[in-house]
Sequence to fold (523 residues):
Amino acid sequence: MVKSSLRTIQLQVIYKKLLMEKSVIIVGAGMAGLSAGCYARMNGFKTTIFELHTSPGGLCTAWKRKGYTFDISMHLVTGSIKGAHHTMWKELGIIDSIRFHVHDHYAMIDGGDKKLLYSADRKKVQDQMMEISPSDEKRIRKFIKMIFGPDILDAASLKPAELSSFTDKLKVIPKILPLVKYFFTESNNTLQDFATGFSDSFLKDAVRFIADGPGWPMPQYPMIALAGFINSTVIKSGVPLGGSQSVAYKIADLFKKNGGEVKFKSYVTDLIIIDDKVKGIRLKDGSEYFADYIIWAGDGHTLLFDILKGKYIDKRIKKMYEAWTPVKPVVHVMMGVNRDFSDEPHRTIFRPSLVDTVAGEKREWLCMLHHSFDSSMAPEGKSVVEVWYDSDFEYWEKLSGDKEKYKTEKQKIADYTISELEIRYPGFKNQVEVIDVPTPMTYKRYTDNWKGSPDGWYLTNENLTQGDPVHRLPGLDNLFTAGQWTGPYTGTVIAALSGRQAIELISKSEKKEFITNYNRLIE
Ligand SMILES: Cc1cc2nc3c(=O)[nH]c(=O)nc-3n(C[C@H](O)[C@H](O)[C@H](O)COP(=O)(O)OP(=O)(O)OC[C@H]3O[C@@H](n4cnc5c(N)ncnc54)[C@H](O)[C@@H]3O)c2cc1C
Fold:
């Protein structure tokens, strides 16, 4: 009798808790959706993520071929070693569970007779540049001062701008002060203009390539974003051993262990909206799911223009999609090679020897990366090597209409790349054991990102100053947005941060304290 009434009370408590627990649906299990999911559980929301694919991670993905792992994202994770975003990665559980490798250099620019290694050692970089072009001394000193100086990212805050109080803003001042001079002198300048000012033609290219390189261009890169570049990209940022997919899997595991649910193969095609309030989602198979809040962490263009038909946008959002430029997609030639590349710089930008076009464009420089610092990526003594080519989405979209032509073009790019690497590394051709060529169409098919973009929007002087992410759509309640389309300067760090911020805003609208750990769930 006593036992049964105790059970009844326990059941009542659970029932009451369930009734009180508000629910969140998240669309997309990329870094933004997973992060939103974790913070939603930390804050006691019943949370389900709907993901079109069969595994979590979105662009943070990898696949195996003959013992090699081809992993495409997270060549560096901002804040994984230290910095303003470190706390968030810790909260998400990856700092204590994943080892990060820290490179001692950013990249090698190899112009044949002239070479520049972007080392983490300030003096080494300056000495190399001075030796290359003593007459550029003034410009070299300015560049070195900027890239090794105060880090612009130190001024970043984890809190959404909408919730920043006067005191929060005051706290950032000491971090902004060392950068103030740059805001006055550099706010309209670009890296490209600065690089052109060098008298030495190799330095013109090598300086630009620090951010705007072959394979991953960054046109109109704001000069001010160079502040602390080596600090933020090398010294404070590591590469996760096991690759970006292992990070995504770890975060997804923690989410599930703490009561979150992920429904895979669930393509969300519509939102259920009543009186300008989002009540739920509809999947491709017609099934419907309802929640108190919906977070859209999938492709932004699909949400705004295909699903919402452009009804819930304002001037700012319109400008993003009309005037900003999406990061150009990439064709990768990924190779498993029976050769140890660990003595080579992990990223080398070099001049090709053969004259050829790749995906319709002549290439003056190539970018090659290897993953030999991570023993989990290839069998012992072997390496994963990749060459990136930035390439227009439309080119591949058109080609993909003809399967044979599409296949032939991929093969042509692979053959060209191997011939080029054979010249650079004699014997390379016969050491290639496996090869794969994902294209912008692969990105589109896999993640549904607009124009196959790997990273949302390019950062420019213009959008840098209007950079607060779009968390909500005007006139539409209960919907929050997260991910790489919500603001410029994304990468995994801002994708994850936007998920965190969406939950902080939801907690605020629930008048609840924002919790950043799972302790309350365990109590
Ligand atoms: C080659 C490459 C290198 C990169 N290098 C780095 C790096 O070094 N450092 C770094 O920080 N970042 C890097 N990035 C960028 C980084 O990977 C992305 O910015 C980040 O992963 C974006 O996360 P997201 O969650 O916003 O979007 P996504 O990863 O695109 O996730 C969106 C998810 O939503 C799902 N989805 C979309 N629509 C729907 C729908 N309708 N229904 C259900 N599910 C849906 C997709 O399948 C996907 O899983 C790189 C990216 C690439 C491709």
